[in-house]
Structure formats: structure tokens, C-alpha cells
Amino acid sequence: MMKNILLIGGSHGIGLEIASKLSVKNHVYVASRTIGGLSETNITHIPFDALSENLSDKPLPEEIHGFVYCPGSINIKPFKMLTEESFRNEMEINFFGLVKTVKSVIGNMVEGGSIVFLSTVAVSTGMPFHTSISAAKGAIEGFARALAAEYAPKLRVNVIAPSLVDTPLSERLLNNDKKKEMMAQRHPLKKVGRVSDVANAVLFLLDFENSWITGQVIGVDGGISTLNMNS
């Protein structure tokens, strides 16, 4: 049976890759501000701004089997250069937008449905210049575990925590070969992530065949969070 999968953000980068892979065997709906790369697919696009609009006002499927929240940010700066407003902005797009959309869709989620959020390896591994994004994504991880406990066994809730992935969002960090090589060498697997690496992990968690996984934060990070290669 074809499943209904809803993505918030999915017109570029990781979200577009997830949506494209899912659309082969599912009905995929993407709620995002722009249509981006979706125009060349059979995916249903729902114009939507997570910061200013209510998803309940949009034409959603009555039954949702999978839900993924993709919007995020990369604001890597020294703490002394970040204002309180910087932290509020990170929380709005990464966390409060997520909470608001989950509120809107959770009543449509079917028994056995799967919810997946995206975090960052910087939450579990202290990294300089990541204070604002780590705070916002850390909120997601805590929220996800609590939500997973509250809605078990009806729903599963998990988080993917990537390291640096080559996307338009990270272009500033990977805009020449020297930067790419430097970033690759930081990871035990000696490469930065591809959008397909993260998308494949999300598809695994959405699959009803993998129904004994909930409340987990899974690193897709080239080994950087757990392997010390310097000893």
C-alpha cells in the first residue's frame, strides 16, 4: 500500500533528496516556502512558511504515515559575536517551527506512523562556534525523546544527527577544494557527507519494516562523534 509522507522543507538539499527517494513508492507531500527542485517531480507541493503560517490551514492528507521536519540553519560564529536575537532566530526555525508543525499533524498520524527530525553531531560532541545551533538542535533531541515516550506504542519518533553534509546550506564551508579536503580529514571516514547518506537513514526510520526503533538519536557523521583517530 502506498503511504502518505509529509515533509516540512523539501525543495532543496537533504529534504529534496529525501522527498525524491520516497516518491518512488509513496505519496509525498512537501510543505515549503519555495518549490525548488520539486517542479520536475510527481511530489505534491504545499506552499508554506513554518515561521509565519499554520499548517492546519493547509490541505493535508487525512492519514499521514510518515513525517519529517527538514528546515534548519548553519550559523557558526564565536559566542561573543552572537546576540540574544541570534539564539532566538535559531530556536524559531529549528525548534519552535518544528513544535508548531508537529502540533498540526500529529492528529493525522496513523497507528505505527514514524516521525523523524534532523539534529547535528555538534549536540553530542562539543564543537567551538556552534553554541546557537547546538542549543536549538539539542532542544529537538530532548523533545523527540519525550514525544517518543508519550506516544509509544502508537508512533515512533527518532532523530538523525549528521555531521557536515555537502548541501547549499553548507556551501560557505565547502566552497573550494582546500576547504572540502580540510573538512573531510576531520572525519575518520575522510569525507564529508552526501545528501544521500542522510536521506537513506531517514528512509530506514520511516519504513514500517523497521518498527522496533524509537526515541533514538542516530549519528550519520563519518564516525566523528564516536571515534578518536588521534590515539
Automatic annotation (TrEMBL):
Keyword Ribosomal protein on entry: no
InterPro entries: NAD(P)-bd_dom_sf (IPR036291), SDR_DHRS6-like (IPR051122), SDR_fam (IPR002347)
Entry protein name: SDR family oxidoreductase
Family the UniProt entry places it in: Belongs to the short-chain dehydrogenases/reductases (SDR) family.
Pfam families noted in UniProt: adh_short_C2
Signal peptide: none
PANTHER family the UniProt entry points to: DIHYDROANTICAPSIN 7-DEHYDROGENASE
GO terms for MF: oxidoreductase activity
Gene3D superfamilies: NAD(P)-binding Rossmann-like Domain (3.40.50.720)
Top-level taxon: Bacteria
Keywords: Oxidoreductase
The UniProt record lists the keyword Oxidoreductase: yes
